[in-house]
Each structure stands twice: as C-alpha cells, then as structure tokens.
Haem-NO-binding
Amino acid sequence: MHGLINKAIQSFVCATYGRECWLRATEVAELGFVEFEAMLVYDRDKSYRLLDALCAELKRPRDEFLEDLGTYLVSHPNMEGLRRLLRFGGVTYVEFLHSLDDLSDRVRLAVADLTLPALELIECSPNEFELHCHPGLDGYSSVMTGLLRAMADDYGALVFLTRTGTNDKGIDIISMTLVESAFAEGRNFDLGARS
C-alpha cells in the first residue's frame, strides 16, 4: 500500500487519538517501525494488520474508523491541501460529484505510483446519485463516504448518504440524495491560495 495512504492514517490517528495510541497499535501490528514514509510502498498485509490493531485499540468497526478517516482528510487543518484539490472539482457540490469520475487519474498525475480504484458517478435523477467504488482497495468506499459527507458540509449542501452494499461485480455503492444544495453557508474557498 502506498506510503501516502499509510501516512494519512498515521496523521489521523495522532491528531485524533494521540501519538500513544498510534505507538501501541504499531507495536501490536509488529511493524518494526513507527513512522511511515510518504513516498514508499508497503506490503498491504502490514497496513491491514495496523488497521486491525487500531480498530481493536479503539474498539471501533473498521468501516466506522475509515469513514472518520475520510472526514478527517477534508475537514482537519492538517489536510487543507487535499481539501483545496478536491474543491477544484467544481463550484457546487453536484459539480464536485461529477468530477469524481476523474479522481483516480488526477491522483496518478500528481503521484504516478499511487493507484486508487476507479469511481463512477451515476445520476439517477437531478437530486439522486450513486457513486460506484470499484474494487482494489479494501475500505475505500468507507473512506469515500466520510469524504463525501465532509465535502457536503464544505459546500454547505444537505445530503443524505448511505453505503447500499456491493454488487455482483464487487463494486461498492454509495447512494446520495441531495436535499438542498445551499442548506448552510459553506466553508470559504478562494482559487488563489494565501500563505
């Protein structure tokens, strides 16, 4: 698994639960180290052992933990760069949703050896959507569910999201109903970054 993914998990755990929690989990998972390097690729077994150790430590199901990770990736000040990249997907939440079809390709442009599963948005009606998360990374749809919730808040949209299961091709489906696109004031976003 790519080091950027592992580093994001590390950042989330340390920021949310504390470094001691992280250190205990790395010990239980028998990694042999405590810091991930962002640009290295690690054996998936190590990453999954670490996730199991973290979920056991926190007494949380993996899906819930990964959904919270997805929320963190957008909402925490440590991750402002990723939030900005996602906001370039569109002026509205619906435009952002339509940009998700190209997300894995855009990620590969930025980091050539980071491969994310394909995403496919199906517009069932002007206010109802399905996001199809193709196989390739266990828990990806859970992370995307948290990310989609946080992005809805970021845009000020009121959206109901549900992971509706996996189809016969192994594709996880997230159903979304856009109740109101301008439900609340979204977070400020300017095209020009300020230092």
